[in-house]
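Human: I would love a firmer grasp of how sequence relates to backbone shape in proteins. Could you go through the record with me and say what the backbone is doing? Here is the record:
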Amino acid sequence: MSTLREFFTQQISLFQKSAQPALEAQLLICHSTGLSKEQFFLCLERTLSKAEERRFERLAARRLAGCPLPYLTGVKEFWSMAFRVGPGVLIPRPETESIVEKALALASKRKATIVDIGTGCGNIALALARELPRANVLATDISFRALKVARANAKTLGLDRVAFLQGDLFSPLRKLHLENRCDFILSNPPYVSAREWDRLPQEIREHEPRRALLAGNSGLEVISRIVPGALFFLRPRAYLLLEIGKGQLPRILRLFDQRWADLAHIPDLRGIPRIVIARKK
């Protein structure tokens, strides 16, 4: 049997094709042993049991076969919060934090009604609920599985006040009569086109939920419904924030008519326009 230090050193080479091989090995060892990331470095001389080594080997085999790491550990960090994820639920991406950051800058800690459309595991809604304790936060998703995970995350994070509603885009808002009552509508919607889908990494195409990523032939099928639909639910001078795909900005800006003002966009770390912001007149 090996010490944790020895085992960790031996296993890093398994993930040499990964961008962060040491981190992948560490996270899978932590998941196999029940150790936290903090405990890991305090227990390097601890001896691993045969059962722990076998658990790691099973997880490593699935990872090398292409299963996303967060689906193996069951957790993905977003906005310094640990979100439960699993098959059928989109894995949060770091670039989506820009929506949270911009919404916080615009909200300025004031009381607001915030709606997250297509919430997935609830990462945007719950991050904003934590930062804006006076806000009324609602989130919708068409997927029952995603909402089940989002509600579990809300409970774990102590943010049960967030309302999670099942339905297509704005349909749950109509039932609550929220017309002209929302201060922010945010969404990381499906925006991958059919052509782009075929070029996505196999890991994404085979494991992450197609419905949460693929919009249709153009990639704008969902966004083209959100932009006009948001007008019915936003208050005057309220904001819509959308995550978009590479190369989509010119076509998306054409979706906004004279009823919108102050159109702007935020690039991601690669300089790609990633977030579009617009204010209802």
